[in-house]
Design a protein that fits this description.
By secondary structure, the protein is an alpha+beta fold. The chain contains seven helices and twelve strands. It has helices spanning about 10-15, 35-45, 95-105, 170-175, 180-205, 235-240, 245-255, and strands at about 30, 45-50, 60-65, 80-85, 90-95, 110-115, 120-125, 125-135, 140-150, 165-170, 210-215, 225-230. The strands form two sheets. It has a six-stranded antiparallel beta sheet, with helices on both faces. Bound molecules: adenosine-5'-diphosphate and magnesium ion (MG).
Length: about 270
């Protein structure tokens, strides 16, 4: 039996949103269009725009809405302006129409999502998010087998390894913000969230065996699911932990459900 992969972020998001207990973890997300851009910027001053079938942080943009008091330009009072960031480039726009024209050119007719932007916790000034690995164990139940942290490179808007993001221990990143007891509580919540998300997605995608949740934590310690990968990278768990038993279990489970852990294949 092959391991199921689902590339559309929108399809996965819709499946998660069917579960009322999980919906609060999902940032407000819509298919990108001019109307969606306009409406999202009415409720959120910070949004992400990303390819529906993207990987590795490719093509991810964000928009920050500023009002005249924050903006360097000499705008009349109460006027808004918009800063689009793409890779490390920043571009200012004074109307949503101009902003949309630029975004539309970048999108090149492909399906994109627009999502509420999460102001993530930082580590030494750089944003970080977490990767929660969840696998079907040989007893047929979902288990959260590992968590790693990923810190964005300076001035980057994505934490992906392919964009210079670096891997750090969950505890090291969280220790700047909370006590050991609070870290353990969040770890437990992430483990439970991981298995609940996997069970929910399995209702739509029955042959799922492994998922990797990209999770952001904001300054109020709210947990947000940015995306769910159905072909999560396993190598960070090998290279990174001194405790080799973590990767041994990850590999044992992966081999049991039929994913080869020797051949190098595209994973994210
Ligand atoms: N809504 C968001 N708020 C804040 N950061 C985000 C948001 N969506 C994505 N990001 C950042 O961009 C990265 C890549 O986005 P993601 O949705 O995971 O797509 P990809 O499939 O390219 O990894 C995330 O790991 C995170 O660092
Ligand atoms: Mg991702």
């Amino acid at each position: 039996m092959t391991v199921q992969r689902v590339s559309s972020k929108w399809t996965k998001t819709k499946s998660i949103l069917k579960n009322k207990g999980l919906a609060p973890y999902v940032p407000d997300t819509r298919l990108y269009s001019f109307d969606a851009l306009e409406q999202m910027l009415e409720t959120h001053s910070f949004v992400y725009i990303k390819p529906d079938r993207g990987t590795y942080g490719n093509g991810v943009m964000c928009v920050e809405m500023m009002d005249s008091s924050e903006s360097e330009s000499e705008l009349p009072d109460n006027e808004k302006s918009y800063v689009l960031q793409y890779e490390t480039k920043k571009e200012h726009f004074t109307t949503i129409e101009q902003l949309h024209n630029k975004v539309n050119r970048i999108c090149q007719g492909k399906t994109y999502l627009i999502q509420q932007g999460i102001r993530m916790l930082r580590y030494k000034g750089n944003s970080f998010d977490l990767r929660v690995l969840v696998q079907k164990n040989p007893y047929g139940t979902w288990e959260s087998t590992g968590i790693i942290g990923r810190v964005a490179a300076k001035n980057k808007i994505v934490t992906n390894h392919h964009s210079g993001g670096i891997v750090k221990h969950f505890k090291v990143l969280m220790s700047e913000h909370m006590t050991s007891e609070e870290i353990n509580n969040i770890r437990k919540e992430l483990h439970t969230l991981g298995t609940n998300i996997a069970s929910q997605l399995q209702k739509s995608f029955p042959n799922l065996k492994e998922i990797g949740l990209d999770v952001a934590i904001d300054s109020n310690w709210n947990i947000w699911i940015l995306e769910v990968n159905t072909k999560p990278a396993l190598f960070p768990f090998k290279k990174f932990f001194k405790d080799q038993s973590i990767y041994q279990k990850v590999r044992k489970y992966a081999n049991a459900y039929g994913r080869s852990t020797t051949k190098k294949k595209r994973a994210n």
